[in-house]
């Protein structure tokens, strides 16, 4: 359901720089012209530049570069994911907010999204560099009716979904590095953090945290990661429309989550393998207590990485940092 503000905005956007009559808007939305004017003022306060052309109407001159609900909604094609959007110009971590909202009962598909994180995090309490207005820093709350042991695969489902979205929007194909990284030219462009709220035998919610470096230049990254990280802009040479990318990610995330829940991991695994840069390679895996070396021969239907050690033994790895 679109709000009045969103309806006005979508009309202005659809007019593509031509004036939209205030009277026509008022008639269609069944509100007074004074109300239309108030909504337009509200949009201007959010950074939209709207020009009033005498006797003709309103022209949208420019759009703020933000990932607000108003900017994302027009691109949405999902039935659940992103239908409830909670937007924060700044926050500590969208994972923390989403966890709190999930506990308070936020519906399936709720999207928590921000411009800037002051305490963005990766796995094992590592920090996630989240420059203002340049990335996609978001968390999606999903509530599938599945057993908790099936939750970790959502990291892999998400990796496929984000890769597809990036490919649609930029034409460039990222590689998936097990378990939670997307790389372009060997550098990290995306990280995924999947967290779980569950009872022994039932998932309450899965919170999928997604960080995509979008419009940063190299200098925007902390010096410590400048040689490891990259952005879509650095790789493709052009700015990416963040709201459109967010909507595409949600579209594929909904699509592949549904496939996973209905048909199991097999179909996702095939896609995942086609994008993987890990399988078939000699790798080093740093686990919490040991480091193993060998050839990554595949992933199981549980998303577990199969590592063949030099003595032939095959070890299943549930979580690790992989060095190629
Ligand atoms: C991850 O952890 O890759 C998961 C990152 C998830 C971030 C999203 S943003 C929205 C949501 N809210 C949050 O607070 N988090 C999620 P991990 O595999 O542990 O990788 C972390 C490592 O990646 C760091 O130790 C750095 O070396 C590197 N790194 C940090 N920031 C980066 C960035 N912006 N781009 C590329 N690499 C980065």
Could you outline the blueprint of secondary structure elements for this entry?
Layout: H1 4-14, H2 22-29, H3 33-45, E1 49-53, E2 57-62, H4 69-72, E3 85-88, H5 94-103, E4 111-114, E5 135-142, H6 153-170, E6 175-177, E7 181-184, E8 187-198, E9 203-213, H7 232-236, H8 242-263, H9 266-275, E10 282-286, E11 291-299, E12 305-309, E13 314-317, E14 321-323
Parallel strand pairs: 3-4
Antiparallel strand pairs: 1-2, 4-5, 5-9, 6-7, 7-8, 8-9, 10-11, 10-14, 11-12, 12-13
The structure holds biotinyl-5-AMP.
Summarize the structure.
Acts both as a biotin--[acetyl-CoA-carboxylase] ligase and a repressor. This protein is of the alpha+beta class and 324 residues long.
Name of the level-1 CATH class of the largest domain? Alpha Beta
Q: What is the number of helices?
A: 9
Helix/strand/pairing class, anyone?
alpha+beta
**Poorly predicted tracts of residues:** none
Please tell me the CATH architecture of the largest domain by its name: 2-Layer Sandwich
N-to-C SSE series?
A: HHHEEHEHEEHEEEEHHHEEEEE
What is the overall shape?
elongated
Function: Acts both as a biotin--[acetyl-CoA-carboxylase] ligase and a repressor.
Catalytic activity: biotin + L-lysyl-[protein] + ATP = N(6)-biotinyl-L-lysyl-[protein] + AMP + diphosphate + H(+)
EC number: 6.3.4.15
Keywords: ATP-binding, Biotin, DNA-binding, Ligase, Nucleotide-binding, Repressor, Transcription, Transcription regulation
């Amino acid at each position: 359901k679109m709000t009045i503000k969103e309806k006005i905005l979508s009309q202005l956007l659809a007019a593509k720089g031509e004036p939209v009559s205030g009277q026509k808007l008022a008639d269609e939305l069944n509100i007074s012209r004074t109300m239309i004017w108030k909504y337009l003022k509200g949009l201007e306060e959010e950074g939209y530049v709207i020009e009033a052309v005498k006797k003709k109407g309103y022209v949208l001159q420019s759009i703020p570069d933000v990932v607000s609900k108003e900017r994302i909604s027009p691109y949405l094609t999902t039935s659940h994911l992103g239908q409830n959007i909670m937007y924060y110009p700044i926050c500590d971590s969208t994972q923390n907010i989403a966890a709190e909202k999930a506990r308070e009962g936020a519906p399936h598909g709720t999207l928590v999204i921000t411009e800037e994180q002051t305490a963005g995090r990766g796995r094992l309490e590592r920090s996630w560099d989240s420059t203002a207005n340049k990335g996609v820093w978001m968390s999606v709350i999903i509530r599938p009716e599945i057993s908790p042991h099936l939750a970790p695969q959502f990291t892999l489902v998400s990796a496929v979904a984000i890769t597809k979205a990036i490919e649609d929007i930029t034409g460039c194909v990222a590689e998936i590095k097990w378990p939670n990284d997307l790389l372009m030219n060997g550098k990290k462009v995306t990280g995924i953090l999947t967290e779980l709220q569950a009872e022994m035998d039932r998932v309450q919610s899965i919170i999928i945290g997604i960080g995509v470096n979008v419009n940063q230049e190299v200098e925007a990254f902390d010096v410590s990661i400048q040689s490891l990280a990259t952005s879509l802009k650095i790789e493709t040479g052009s700015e990416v429309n963040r709201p459109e990318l967010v909507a595409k990610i949600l579209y594929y995330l909904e699509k592949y989550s549904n496939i996973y829940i209905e048909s199991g991991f097999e179909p996702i695994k095939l896609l995942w393998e086609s994008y993987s840069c890990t399988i078939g390679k000699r790798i080093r895996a740093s686990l919490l207590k040991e480091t193993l070396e060998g050839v990554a021969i595949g992933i199981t239907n549980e998303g577990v990485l199969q590592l063949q050690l030099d003595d032939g033994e095959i070890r299943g790895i549930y979580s690790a940092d992989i060095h190629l």
